[in-house]
Every structure is written in C-alpha cells, then in structure tokens.
Write a structure and sequence with these properties.
By secondary structure, the chain is α/β, with parallel strands linked by helices. It has one domain: Rossmann fold, CATH 3.40.50. Helices cover 34% and strands 11% of the residues. The chain has a 5-stranded parallel sheet with strand order 3-2-1-4-5, with helices on both faces. The termini are far apart. The model has no long low-confidence stretch (mean pLDDT 93).
C-alpha cells in the first residue's frame, strides 16, 4: 500500500491496453491510484471485467465504475446498432473520424475524473489518450487535453484557490509498439486487457476492428505474440 505521503491520482481505466499501461506508469511514479471506469452502454462492456482485474492486480486504493447510459444518445458504433468497421487499412486510420467515435466521450469522462479529484484532494489525472497509432478521435489530441486542463483550472474550487490540476497523457506521442514496450518494462500483463470494439460474449477479440489491428501491429513490431484471446481462426 502506498503511504499517505504520496500524491493521489485519478486514472481513467477502460480495461484496454492503453489505460492499463497508463495505470502502470502512474504507479511507477509513486502515486496513490484511484481508478475510474465507465459503464456507458458500450457494446464491448466485457472491458469492465478487465478493468476490475487490472485494478485489483495494480493494488489501487479505490476503483469506481460509473453508470452512464450513452445509448440514450447513440451516434456511435459503440453505443448503437451501427456496424463496427472491420479490416480498414492501417494507413486509413487517423484520416477522418470513424463511426466508433463516441460523441464527447473523453470530455464526459474527464469531467467525472475532475469531480472525483477535487473530492480526493488530488491534483493529477491520468488518461491513456494517444495521437499516433489511433483512429482519428478529436478528443485524443494534445490541443484538446491542453484546452481541457485550462478549463478545469478555471472551473473548479481547487483551481481557483491555486491548486492547479494536471492532466497527464504519458502515451500521447508514442506508437502502439512503444506503448507495449513501456508496459512490458513495467511488468504489465496484457493478457488481462480487452481492447476489441466488437468482442464475442466471452470476450474473445474479433481481430479485425481498428483497435484490434492497431494492437496486433504493436505486438508484431515488438516481435512477440499478443496474449489476448481472439476468435478461433481469426489469426490464421
């Protein structure tokens, strides 16, 4: 258990590869970990079981799963009946905004994290956004994070009273291969993670959505096999 002399941090934990690595980085930097996940009506809700496993293994102080049903709005392949794109060429990813984008998702998530951070007396929030090997989401860009941090310090009692909030994005300029390499250095067990946008009910990855393809590329570039479970026959 990290002592109370260490600063507290709220870490957004989806259960995927990036957020798991981000949690490990925050832990390596000596923070007391408070993990925050969301049951927002996502079709890949099996990631929440992964988040619980990861939080438990990391020894977080507290893990909260917030229920917010974004299916009420829809507008995304992750929260409605829109089909998840499969088999997109890697060079197309990052060009345009795909239907797997959930409108304002990171703004919503960061707002909850900000509220909890204020209650905890924490000045630090960690989020595993990435602007290199990603699907082109506007709320994963450095300029978005900088603008949100500025807003947060204007909108909170802590910020007004001089306790500046910092939003940490340790993965934002890393490739997927570099993220995996960093995680392995920190002892991350990627078999615990769920990244797929369209997994089977048992949690087996499809191997064809953007998230799977980027993940598989990252492991291949490290010369190792992905320990995640995939649907039978998908990887040949």
């Amino acid at each position: 258990m990290v002592s109370d002399t260490h600063p507290r941090a709220v870490v957004l934990l989806s259960g995927g590869l990036d957020s798991c690595t981000t949690l490990a980085i925050a832990k390596s930097e000596g923070y007391q970990l408070y993990a925050l996940s969301f049951n927002y009506g996502q079709r890949h809700a099996v990631e929440l079981a992964a988040a619980e496993r990861i939080a438990r293994q990391a020894g977080v102080v507290q893990h909260i799963v917030v229920p917010i049903d974004l299916r009420l709005f829809g507008g995304s392949a992750l929260t409605s009946d829109i089909a998840v794109p499969k088999g997109r060429p890697l060079d197309e990813m990052g060009q345009g905004i795909p239907v797997t984008y959930v409108p304002a998702r990171n703004t919503i998530f960061l707002s909850f994290a900000l509220a909890w951070a204020e209650v905890l007396g924490a000045n630090d929030i960690f989020i595993g956004v990435n602007a290199l090997d990603y699907s082109g989401y506007p709320d994963c860009r450095p300029e978005y994070i900088a603008a949100y941090q500025q807003m947060a310090n204007l909108a909170t009692r802590a910020g007004v009273e001089g306790h500046a909030l910092r939003i940490h994005t340790p993965l934002i300029h890393l490739t997927k291969a570099e993220i995996i390499r960093r995680g392995l250095e920190l002892g991350v067990d990627y078999a615990l993670t769920v990244t797929c946008y369209d997994p089977s009910p048992a949690g087996a990855a499809c191997g064809e959505c953007d998230s799977c393809l980027l993940r598989l590329k990252g492991f291949a570039e490290n010369g190792i096999s992905d320990p995640a479970a995939y649907r039978e026959g998908v990887l040949g």
